[in-house]
Amino acid sequence: MKAFLKNYRQSPRKVRLVATLVKGKNVAEAIAELDFLAKRAGLPIKKLLLSAVANAKQMGIEVENLYIKELRVDKGIVMKRMMPAAMGTGHRINKRTSHVNILLAEKVVKVKKTKKAKK
Q: 26, 32, 34, 82: which could form a disulfide with 67 (CB 3.0–4.6 Å)?
């Protein structure tokens, strides 16, 4: 299942730190880790993950089998602002945004066949 968050007002570099932390984990582990994370991007990514889980429930997929297959953070728009500086000049301030895409997939449980003992 997919979910996305567009124009999140934090730089992609900072959001990627959180994204790489939970990528590849199952949903329960990722939610537990995001609950206690001391990064600002933790809450929006958790909300996005819960949104993707709700999308999966609508499709009839069991939550216990889901894991984060892909969590991509892309560059969004950059708002350009000016900060006054010495002697009447100005320095440019870039206010960066992020686009966050999440893709959940089901883990396939393979059953191993046991070999029969030869007599």
A: 26
